[in-house]
Write a structure and sequence with these properties.
The protein is built from 9 helices and 5 strands; from the N terminus they run ββαβααβαααβααα. It has about 170 residues and is an alpha+beta fold. The chain has one domain.
Amino acid sequence: MAPSLTAFVQGSYADALIVDCDFAGLDAVGRFEAEAIKWKHVSLLKLQTPDHLQAACDLGVALPVTLEELWPAAVWQRAQEQGWLVQRPRKGLLSEGLLARMVDEDLRLSDVVENDWRIYFENQVNDDPASTAKMDWASYTASLNAAALEPICQAHLAILDQALAKLGIT
């Protein structure tokens, strides 16, 4: 279920839905746009690449962006220690341009993956229906006090600000 905000704006309800920028999220965007006439009071906001993953994106690495990818590497380290991560499938992560460059320059994958974003490239949150990893992760971040949470949730706050702006709330 996508996070959403609802507001009563100018005499009617309006919703802002936040969708992941992964396969399922992009599929939802496509279906939403195909039926947009039926959803005139709904705004759809797609998660954007956070600053800490921009270098990977610029290089040609297409990391899916979910709410978990918005957290900085320190939170991902904690998730790894807790066993909430599994190996990320590599299929489709490297652009054709990056693959061509690797061939032309005789580069290995280890030559292009930077330590700053390696944990995101190699891992993803365990989303197996039998796993509690997503809920455990969410419980952990929700339990952080404001002083610990504020410096690490800037990407989350940015998408919430966008959703509020779509609803006319400033």
